[in-house]
């Protein structure tokens, strides 16, 4: 069974940036999955530090000549950050996918796999995954004027993964707070007429809103996997539960949409049959 998550933007702008984060509820280091992230800074890939004497590696006082404790602390921090970097694996548990980029997340307890279609998450340390969760951009555009999404090869730099889909850029940032997903649209898409509900069919969890005179931008994200989505009443988060459980495994939240001037636009998630739709 699949669902879609839809997103809409209520203004026509030259650039729109939409981002949200997925994390394990309650996991992390003091910053919950609802902590907003206003920007992403991307540096060069970190280099592996040279090995230290045994006493230094164990926390002792022996350090290389001229090296202080501040240097050793920075080495430890860099090593910790590198743990969240993406790397290529020749075998994956994904059906029909032999090799892919993957990134572990120790703090949140999951592992992400990145393909030309999107992202898939599984427990980090389980040989036989007890749950699976996948999300891919299915289509996007204005009311009544949808644009299909073409596959894109992932580009990786340290803990960041980018999918260049032409008019829309999709990116991911993996760190101890969770996996952040973002979309950047550099130019307004074509504007259609009426509400873009073609192909949604019956049985949607939320009825489409009444047509608005303001141009709206939607992103339809197709869900897959074994987890059941539960949408918050305010449309700002989606919790995912395993079958027969009342404890959330993942939370998809921290939705934020900004325009070219940096203004924050109103945004919400909506669930429809076979779609997960964040919109603003």
Task: Tell me about this structure.
The protein is mostly beta strands and 280 residues long. The protein has two helices and 19 strands. The protein has helices spanning 54-57, 69-82; strands at residues 3-9, 16-23, 87-89, 100-105, 110-114, 118-123, 133-142, 145-148, 155-157, 160-164, 168-175, 178-185, 217-225, 228-231, 238-241, 248-259, 264-265, 268-273, 275-279. Strands 1, 3, 4, 5, 6, 7, 8, 13, 18 and 19 form a ten-stranded antiparallel β-sheet that branches. Strands 2, 9, 10, 11, 12, 14, 15, 16 and 17 form a nine-stranded antiparallel β-sheet that branches. A hairpin with a 6-residue loop joins strand 15 and strand 16 (248-259). The two termini are 26 Å apart.
Please write out the topology.
Blueprint: E1 3-9, E2 16-23, H1 54-57, H2 69-82, E3 87-89, E4 100-105, E5 110-114, E6 118-123, E7 133-142, E8 145-148, E9 155-157, E10 160-164, E11 168-175, E12 178-185, E13 217-225, E14 228-231, E15 238-241, E16 248-259, E17 264-265, E18 268-273, E19 275-279
Antiparallel strand pairs: 1-13, 1-18, 2-12, 2-16, 3-4, 4-5, 5-6, 6-7, 7-8, 7-13, 9-10, 10-11, 11-12, 13-19, 14-15, 15-16, 16-17, 18-19
């Amino acid at each position: 069974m699949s669902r879609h998550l839809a997103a809409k933007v209520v203004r026509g702008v030259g650039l729109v940036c939409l981002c949200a984060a997925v994390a394990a509820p309650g996991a992390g280091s003091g910053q919950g999955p609802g902590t907003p992230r206003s920007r992403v800074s991307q540096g060069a890939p970190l280099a592996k530090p040279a090995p230290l004497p045994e006493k230094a590696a164990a926390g002792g006082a022996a350090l290389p000549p001229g090296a202080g404790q501040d240097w050793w602390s920075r080495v430890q921090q860099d090593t910790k950050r590198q743990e969240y970097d993406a790397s290529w694996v020749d075998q994956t548990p994904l059906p029909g996918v032999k090799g892919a980029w993957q990134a572990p997340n120790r703090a949140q307890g999951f592992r992400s796999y990145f393909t030309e279609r999107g992202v898939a998450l599984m427990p980090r340390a389980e040989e036989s995954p007890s749950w699976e969760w996948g999300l891919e951009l299915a289509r996007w555009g204005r009311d009544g004027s949808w644009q299909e999404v073409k596959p894109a090869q992932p580009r990786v730099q340290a803990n960041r993964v980018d999918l260049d889909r032409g008019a829309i850029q999709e990116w991911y940032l993996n760190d101890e707070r969770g996996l952040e997903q973002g979309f950047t649209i550099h130019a307004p898409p074509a504007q259609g007429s009426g509400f873009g509900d073609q192909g949604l069919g019956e049985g949607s969890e939320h009825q489409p809103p009444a047509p608005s005179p303001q141009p709206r931008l939607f992103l339809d994200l197709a869900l897959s996997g074994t987890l059941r989505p539960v949408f918050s009443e305010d449309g700002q988060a989606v919790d995912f539960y395993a079958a027969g459980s009342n404890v959330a495994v993942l939370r998809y939240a921290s939705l934020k949409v900004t325009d070219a001037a940096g203004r924050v636009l109103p945004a919400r998630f909506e669930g429809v049959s076979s779609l997960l739709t964040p919109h603003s």
